[in-house]
Amino acid sequence: MRTIVVGTRQSALALTQTNQVIAALEQLAGDLDLDVAFEVKKIVTKGDQILDVTLSKVGGKGLFVKEIEQALLSGEIDMAVHSMKDMPALLPEGLVNGAVPLRQDARDCLISREGVDLDGLPHGAKVGTSSLRRSSQLLAYRPDLKLEWIRGNIDSRLRKLETEGFDAILLAAAGLKRMGWEDRITSYIPVEICLPAVGQGALGIECRENDAELLELLGRYEDGQTARTVAAERSLLLSLNGGCQVPIGAYAVLGEDGESVHLTGLVGRPDGSLLLKESASGTDPEALGREVARMLAEQGADEILEQARG
Ligand SMILES: NCc1[nH]cc(CCC(=O)O)c1CC(=O)O
């Protein structure tokens, strides 16, 4: 009997996601008559320690996964569940994404104090977000809004909505739904107004590339359609060199044939004064991501990204 050690960050969302994945894998292992058990190991990452500065200034999202990847490579843990949107576009040598499970809601949502939706927010309302992608698109739609920085895990952001005088905050719907906090959502932001982050709502399960036994189990857990759409989005991210926190959005859906992928990509100025948006369809997700990245680059995406990176 093998014990699979699952590394996780300590945030409520990370623990919840990890436990939900373990429950699904246990069920699957039972069905396959595999003799495995799972054990959770909590890991404190740099990103968790530095919650008070702009993340992009200290190294970006990679800070949340670096320690976890080291623990995977050293054998201290065997797998880790990540929010796909927190996974860097490139994984280190020796590690792979073993499964992309069925995607949750990819949209952003508004949690407002007075229960009003985006259009109902008063002129000049104070809206909390921690992403250039959201501020860029929200300001393009409602230039009067005052977008202010709010950081922390989703539970602390929900608290700050009350304590720091925000009229509303923006969060990914997926995190709230996984936590069972769907009732906090006031309204969903259509992807036409706010294109989600690459991989938003999806999970990634990182493990060692030579762990054949675990990879076989994970392979059964993968949702092929989610994997295809997320692959297109991540290819776009890689092509735009968008490793750290940058104003990039992407959302891919499967065509009616169940095979072709339709990808929309966006790069925006953080102040919302310019949004570049391009779409294309194709059957090779990686090639499609590169294609939409090239279309955005032709419109001047690199210049916007350079400026946003500071
Ligand atoms: N950047 C933090 C983060 N990473 C993953 C989620 C939850 C949503 C998801 O799984 O995409 C969140 C919170 C948020 O952005 O609201």
Automatic annotation (TrEMBL):
GO terms for biological process: protoporphyrinogen IX biosynthetic process. Coiled coil: none annotated. Residues 4-215 form the Porphobilinogen deaminase N-terminal domain. InterPro entries: HemC, Porphobilin_deaminase_cofac_BS, Porphobilin_deaminase_N, Porphobilinogen_deaminase_C, Porphobilinogen_deaminase_C_sf. Pathway: Porphyrin-containing compound metabolism; protoporphyrin-IX biosynthesis; coproporphyrinogen-III from 5-aminolevulinate: step 2/4. The keyword rRNA-binding does not apply. The modification S-(dipyrrolylmethanemethyl)cysteine is found at residue 244. Its cofactor is dipyrromethane. GO terms for cellular component: cytoplasm. CDD domains: PBP2_EcHMBS_like. Residues 228-297 form the Porphobilinogen deaminase C-terminal domain. Its EC number is 2.5.1.61. Keywords: Porphyrin biosynthesis, Transferase. Belongs to the HMBS family. Monomer. The porphobilinogen subunits are added to the dipyrromethane group. Tetrapolymerization of the monopyrrole PBG into the hydroxymethylbilane pre-uroporphyrinogen in several discrete steps. This is Porphobilinogen deaminase. It comes from Saccharibacillus brassicae.
